[in-house]
Write a sequence for this structure.
């Protein structure tokens, strides 16, 4: 083999002396700091006031009302029932959200675009996808609390309002992030299937899903965990579950009951974490 | 499927509009059922030619006709149906890592299956015997129910090729089918591809770096250099001088196939953990 073709004896051009990306990085870092400064001032960002002696004493007095947690049997039994109701609200809300989000994701993601296989996406599919994205944006920008207040007026107090509020907001969030996960995964297998003439749904089930199953599942389980927290917040507007109990206990200044409810919370989130880890290992 | 190129020029999708096209205007006719090998040094435009034939790259100039039909004049739906009649096997095997080989191979038949049948096949593979037969031709029958990421690079490449045997296509466009295969398996793969194409009357266009293999197995050889046609001859008429002229300044690519690198014989790596990004 003629090695001189593969390894030149002397470098053909001088080495660069500077990194061309350095100036741009310095500029953007400086710009970010300049923008953050007025934000810090506007939010009165002064965390050191928490550590002043006076404030520490007030904090200690407040926290001492929480310990020990309430462990009377009938209270714990009631907590278990309400925890079950909270999980049910979160799961029902997430199921409805998935029913809404999955079709919207499939229609909005650009990985399944047939016109984009040969260059730029055609105009009608592009604007169709944009309209779907704006729908998702509207769905997730309205806070759950506002949806819940609206639905409480329509269907009355109770879990239904909570389920519907979670379903709409989380449909927006799931739709957006599913689309981004699908677009950021490896597109080669899916594109080859589309290039060989399969339909979009076939390319999704045979290409996108096996490629991205672990990420999609772990995000869904994380959002289920967030839905549990949301259903607690929604309990404050009368949607039932642990949130309503926490609202009652706080209004009666019963710190020990609040601590018990929080401990149940932490247990639920830890359970969701275990489920997510198990599913990722099974699917990964 | 009959191929007819009239002055077809194509540009690489990531190239600037002012750059020269990767494929200069090319005029070529391939009859239905012919087997053609395309050889040439790196950067000659072989992959661009295959992608242009697969209707994956719109032509920058000239015309392409498949079976007398101009694909880019068709509405999108009919173009997608036309794509179902061709099969493109890219150089990197297009296999999702966590899929099983049986599902990956049966995915070659998707254009002929309806949506409901393909979903049923996901739950329970609809043609295990057919997939087994296809893999047997490439000596991979024992890997039928393995996961793709447990296979080595050469095995993945052969799984990608075995998809062709199950597809309903009449045109096979195969990009570098032998890049990760050792000489014995390379010969077996090429004999299978060319033999099956001849038996079914399928047009086969394959790009190859292994020039001796191309001359031995294909009746017609096309040479490309710098995007232009260097020669288009029956294999018996391709002389040593022509090959040396084709590969001038790229002689290291001409001296036999590159030895199988560590990637082809290494043990399969364990599956990387899926990374969860904060959202």
């Amino acid at each position: 083999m003629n090695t001189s073709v593969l390894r030149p004896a002397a470098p053909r051009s001088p080495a660069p002396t500077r990194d061309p990306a350095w100036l741009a990085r310095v500029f953007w870092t400086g710009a970010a700091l300049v923008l953050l400064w007025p934000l810090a001032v506007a939010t009165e960002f002064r965390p050191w006031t928490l550590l002043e002696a006076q404030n520490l004493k007030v904090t200690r007095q407040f926290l001492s009302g929480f310990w020990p947690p309430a462990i009377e049997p009938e209270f714990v039994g009631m907590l278990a029932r309400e925890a079950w109701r909270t999980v049910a609200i979160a799961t029902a809300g997430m199921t409805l959200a998935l029913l809404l989000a999955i079709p919207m994701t499939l229609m909005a993601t650009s990985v399944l675009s047939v016109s984009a296989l040969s260059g730029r996406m055609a105009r009608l599919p592009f604007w169709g996808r944009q309209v779907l994205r704006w729908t998702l944006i509207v769905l997730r920008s309205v806070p759950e609390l506002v949806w819940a207040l609206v639905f409480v007026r329509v269907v009355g107090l109770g879990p239904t309002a909570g389920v519907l509020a979670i379903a709409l907001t989380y449909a927006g969030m799931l739709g957006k992030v599913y689309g981004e996960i699908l677009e950021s995964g490896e597109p080669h297998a899916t594109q080859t299937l589309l290039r060989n003439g399969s339909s979009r749904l076939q390319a999704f089930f045979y290409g996108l899903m096996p490629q991205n199953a672990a990420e999609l599942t772990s995000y869904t389980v994380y959002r289920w965990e967030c839905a549990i927290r949301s259903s607690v917040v929604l309990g404050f507007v009368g949607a039932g579950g642990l949130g309503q109990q926490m609202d009652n206990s706080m209004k009666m200044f019963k710190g020990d009951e609040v601590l018990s409810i929080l401990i149940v919370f932490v247990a639920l989130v830890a359970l969701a974490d275990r489920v997510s880890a198990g599913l990722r290992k099974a699917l990964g | 499927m009959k191929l007819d190129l009239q002055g077809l020029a194509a540009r690489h999708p990531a190239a600037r509009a002012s750059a020269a096209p990767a494929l200069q205007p090319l005029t070529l006719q391939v009859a239905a059922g012919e087997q053609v090998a395309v050889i040439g040094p790196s950067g000659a435009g072989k992959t661009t030619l295959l992608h242009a034939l697969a209707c994956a790259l719109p032509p920058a100039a000239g015309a392409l006709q498949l079976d007398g039909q101009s694909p880019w004049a068709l509405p999108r739906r009919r173009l997608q149906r036309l794509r179902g009649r061709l099969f493109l096997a890219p150089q990197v095997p297009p296999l999702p890592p966590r899929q099983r080989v049986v599902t990956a191979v049966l995915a070659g038949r998707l254009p002929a299956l309806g949506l409901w049948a393909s979903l049923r096949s996901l739950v329970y593979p609809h043609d295990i015997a057919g997939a087994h037969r296809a893999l047997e031709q490439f000596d991979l029958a024992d890997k039928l129910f393995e996961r793709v990421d447990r296979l080595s690079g050469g095995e993945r490449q052969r799984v990608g090729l075995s998809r062709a045997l199950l597809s309903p296509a009449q045109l096979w466009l195969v990009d570098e089918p032998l890049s990760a295969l050792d000489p014995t398996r390379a010969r077996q793969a090429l004999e299978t591809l060319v033999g099956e194409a001849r038996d079914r009357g399928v047009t086969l266009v394959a790009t190859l770096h292994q020039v001796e293999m191309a001359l031995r197995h294909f009746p017609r050889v096309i040479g490309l250099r710098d995007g232009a046609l260097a020669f288009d001859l029956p294999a018996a008429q391709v002389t040593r001088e022509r090959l040396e002229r084709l590969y001038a300044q790229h002689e290291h690519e001409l001296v036999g196939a590159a030895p199988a690198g560590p990637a082809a014989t290494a043990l399969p790596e364990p599956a990387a953990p899926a990374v969860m990004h904060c959202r």
Summary: The interface with chain A takes residues 13, 54-58, 76, 80-88, 90, 92, 94-99, 103, 107-108, 110-111, 113, 115, 118-119, 122, 167, 169, 249, 251-252, 255, 271, 273-274, 276, 279 of chain B (CB under 8 Å). The radius of gyration of chain B is 19 Å.
